Amino acid sequence: MAKRCRVCNGAAQIKRPKTGDIMCKECFYYAFEEEIHHTVLAGKLFTAGETVAIGASGGKDSTVLAHVMTVLNERHNYGLNLILLSVDEGITGYRDDSLETVKINQQEYGLPLKIVSYQELYGWTMDSIVQQIGLKNNCTYCGVFRRQALDRGAMLLKVDKIVTGHNADDIAETVIMNVLRGDIARLRRCTAVTTGTDGALPRCKPFKYTYEKDIVMYAFHKNLTYFSTECIYSPNAYRGFARAYIKDLERIQPSAIIDIIHSGESLCVKKDVRMPVQTTCSRCGYISSNELCKACVMLEGLNKGRPRLGIGKTHKERRLFNEELARQAAEAAATNCNETTTTTTTTTTFTNSKVCCGGKGACGSMGGSGQAPEMCGSNLQSKSESDCVGSVSPSGGGGVAECANSLKKVRIGVPTAKPNLLEF
Amino acid sequence: MCSVQEEAIPQQLNQLTGKLQCVKCRRDVPVVVTRVNDAFCQDCFLVYAVHKFRSAIGKSKVIVPKEHVLVAYSGGPASSALLHFLQEGKKEGKLRFTVTVVHIDELALVSVSDKERQEKVQEVVEIVQQRGFPLLLTSLECAMDMVKPEAGESSQAPEMCKEVTSEKEVDALANPDKGDKLKKLLDSLPSISAKEEFIRVLRNQVLLGVARERGFTKVVVGDTATALSVRIMTDMAKGKGSQVSFDTTIGDKRYGDVMVVRPIRDLNMKEVEAYNRLQNVESISIPHIADQWHKSNSIEQLTAHFIHGLQENFPSTVPNIVRTSDKLGHQDIESLPEKCSLCESPLDTDVGEASALRAVEVCERLLQKDGASRSQSQAAQSSDCTQHDRVAADNMKASLCYGCRLTVKGLRDVSLLPTHVVQKSQSRCLSRDEMRAQISEFLLDDENGDTPNS
Amino acid sequence: MAVPITLEFSGGAELLFANQKKHSIELPGSQKWDVKSLLPWIRDNLLQERPELFMQGDTVRPGILVLVNDADWELMGELEYEIQPNDKIVFISTLHGG
């Protein structure tokens, strides 16, 4: 029952879902790799000399991504410096194993590896977050934190771009999800092959038109090591419906995945539809549609023991929080606390304002959400600000500082961001 | 890595706990639950439903007073409700335009006897007469041949429809030749999803054909919110994302000379069924070829199953999807590119290099990377179709939108398609070839390709 | 005559089989075995939990790839393929994150 390869007439072992073509292994590898090369060229993803971070999770997409990027970089002389960038969410059992796989990848492809962890960036691991809030919205936290973690890690490494292993199935699934949720802003952005060019670190998806099944076949036949297991904190059930729908569609008509992406690309938003304006987070400088980016809002909630902050659209608590912010800002302006100090970390510089307690005995103008600013343990009623300046955690993130006198952790006030450093 | 990102989880359905009062009048016992957990009594619900219908037309101003519009009636619950709304409006003197109903007989696709076919159509005639509207009868297969013959012969296009004023006048508009042509074409389409899409597009073509023949500029259809949400998802799945905004808007202007109007788009299927129940509106159950299709082989049925399943647990699903499509638009009608020769929507194939369409073409190109394999694949092809067929197929492909290309993919003989479609594809490509011939002396490259760039 | 074959589960599918990737088994009885009859046998004899994640109806759940002797099962006849002694059948799940 031997079928012949469509291209070279050799013994065929693979039937490609995208086109239904029957191929032998070698022709499949070639087609697979060259199609990705075409996506790179057509999307003008890279420029020679760039440093590119590969988002590496140890899973199939990122392992194959590391492999193919290495192959194409050499075969077609992209001239790129490739780095593996991995995120440790602090999920015992899940992440430890996959990180081991990434380390194997590092050796196999001879690429430098950098691991950033939630612990060092935010002061929380996923395990501790779940302990605090349970299993209901933990995926939302993880998703927000991971996205920013990748960017922050990339910033530390001074890379020009990030590539992720999002494949055609992922993109199709996201398109469907965004239609279901009515998220018109994301719907417009999600089929772009490069996102984040306006001020943020660009992210590219070379696998945008690559089917997940092809990726698995490639990894299997080439014997690439990857780690695959379900996150122990079970995933969002809603997205699972979209995934099942896509898989069922693929079974009826294999081209459906690419067809959905084409549909997504053909959508055009009405001119008078209000889109969220992208600004920067007033606390840590990350790109955001609101005053505070999601991660800062969530961290605020976690640290205050009120983790529902940050979930859902207009939340009563967020409204209260924003009102409190406004009140504190008005207050701080009234007390003439305009002294600024500059603290330099290893790679980022940002300016702190309102560190001093303004002679009121309170540290930091952002004492907490909806509460009066915290009292500095050493009761610096009439001291000047120089007594109060702490050090900023070198993670480049928002601001957890230690009052030099009382060693009490307080939140540093609003950084006045230097746009080119903080917008990433 | 976990692929979940920041997203809000929609509200799940909460159980209705002992709601004893209508939410509107707070007086009577509720009989209908709609929206997200709102319970209405009978009177308030009817007011609500009628209001939705009338304000959809009134606010959008898509139909002007004294206009004569064509209303499509399939016999199903949604279009039955539509006719009832119109009749009530007329009775109350609130209907400011006049109505003619059209019914498309699709029974050629199902194996029923001529007598059964006639009986079904008579049922339709009776109901429309009860509503008090004039009726035009046509059939799906009429659209297979709508082309005006060459000048010189009787320059009349084949008749699309007949007026029917009593059930005695019904001799099935069955046109066996065209019926066979349609069946042959459907059999040649390889997949069920392709068949269902083709039938849907053809149905539209029939409506447009009747409207154009009789001089109507508005066609009113009974698309409910539920049907629209399934349509949107199906369009996305079939590569017709560019048509989503047209397929769902209240006044669909893509055809230029005829506008499709959707006045019950704010009512979902459950509300329509409740209305029919409370007003004793009868619908006719007519056998259809789609009855034998299943969610395991039909994209539309799979999608309907998916949406209805979600809607059960997340009642804001349908409104969310429709709301998304409300925010979608399209380019200026005037500057719109050519129209697809099958579905008459603007073409969506003029895309840049970084696109799904190109990516698929690259796949195909990579398979023919060396001369040996190209001749081999050509040899394989020539065994079952001639050079002429291939050129015709290429021309046809170039004149179709992405979604319709999928529909006719695998169709060996494109001449089986309706005559107006074949004619449009030929005339379009001829003009491009003519252009190339005219400027050929100025072209530097000697291109030997005789098929236009798709 | 029992039919000895090797089964492999990967891509996350092994989680349903007590995390064991390779299984050497013998299909009992003298009847002809095909993939269609193999699947319920696997479900009833090897599967540790959640059969709905492995099978849907009488075939595998969408998203699970099947290879017969390293070739895509679609090239071998899918459910109708007749199993031969010493065949290797691989089930790869594509459903887990990467």
**CATH topology tier name of the largest domain in chain B:** Rossmann fold
**Sequence stretches where pLDDT stays below 50 over 5 or more residues of chain C:** none
H-E string of chain C: EEHEEEEHE
Low-confidence stretches of chain B: 3-9, 11-15, 370-376, 447-454
Give the overall pLDDT of chain B as a whole number. 82
Q: Over all CA atoms, what is the radius of gyration of chain C? A: 13 Å
CATH homologous superfamily identity of the largest domain in chain B: HUPs
Pfam families (chain B): CTU2
Subcellular location (chain B): Cytoplasm
Keywords (chain B): Cytoplasm, tRNA processing
GO molecular function, one term (chain B): nucleotidyltransferase activity
Task: Write up this protein.
The complex is a heterotrimer of chains A (424), B (454) and C (98). Chain A is an alpha/beta fold. Chain A is built from 14 helices and 15 strands. Chain A has helices at residues 25-42, 60-75, 95-109, 118-122, 126-133, 138-156, 168-181, 184-189, 212-221, 237-252, 256-266, 294-303, 316-334, 419-422, and strands spanning 14-15, 22-23, 51-55, 81-88, 113-117, 161-163, 194-195, 203-204, 279-280, 287-288, 340-344, 349-353, 400-402, 409-411, 415-416. In chain A, strand 4 (81-88), helix 3 and strand 5 form a beta-alpha-beta unit. Chain A is globular, with a radius of gyration of 24 Å. Mean pLDDT of chain A is 71; it is low at 335-424. Helices cover 45% and strands 8% of the residues of chain B. In chain B, strands 6-5-4-3-7-9-8 form a seven-stranded mixed beta sheet, sandwiched between helices. The longest helix of chain B has 23 residues, at 192-214. Helices cover 15% and strands 32% of the residues of chain C. Chain C has two helices and seven strands; from the N terminus they run E-E-H-E-E-E-E-H-E. In chain C, the strands form two sheets. Chain C has a five-stranded mixed beta sheet. A two-stranded antiparallel sheet of chain C has the order 3-4. The chains are: A alpha/beta (424), B alpha/beta (454), C alpha+beta (98). Chains in contact: A-B, A-C. Chains A and B meet through helix 1, helix 6, helix 7, helix 10 and helix 11 of A and helix 6, helix 9, helix 10, helix 11 and helix 12 of B.
